[in-house]
Design goal:
alpha/beta, Nucleotidyltransferase, domain 5, 9 helices
Length: about 230
Amino acid sequence: MAADPRGMAEAEVLDRYDSTWRAQGFARIAGVDEVGRGALAGPLVAAAVVLPDDFDRTGIRDSKLLTAKQREVQCERIMNASVYTIRRIEPNVIDARGLHRSNLALLRRCVRALDPVPDYVLTDGFPVDGLEVPGLAMWKGDRVAACISAASVVAKVTRDRMMMAEHERWPAYDFAVHKGYCTPEHQEALDEHGPCAIHRYRFVNVRRAAGLPEFPEPISLEPQLDLFADLEV
């Protein structure tokens, strides 16, 4: 098992922030994280997770540091033992609303859907306002807080499964391999076939492949448009 320079086991390192707030009387510590910010295609997916106090943190890590098989194993453990929510937002809404605004709204929705409501929320990287409970943004939070790591695993596994399904609809793009992120193979498919219905047109290379101007015109949203009609997984 990996250890940090001070000799703490990896599971202990990941639990120290959760345990710090539990010691201050916050019983339900939620971690929230999203996956898919940098993808050229597919949804943005977020998860919020409250781990039980007695949950074995061994093997829980930032999803990017685990193999696909390890993520599947840990995701099943997390879902079987924890309180969690998963939400998504589709590419056309991301294009209309903007990535960061969509991301913030999605994280809020995940936290608000938790039942029971958490006492404290840890977010990865940047603060999220409007959560209605106290919280803290943590730099590299998915590597230092177990609940954020768990959320990253759940979100990653969920999104990967979605992109595997999208591969069946759009086999020319090979979404099963790169999951919508920019790779030479994905770019080659974009250049050959143009974008499909799940590509994000706010990316310059997607717009270029579609023969559109490099910089999009601002998009006006109809007031009645339900931006979150398809968020739930």
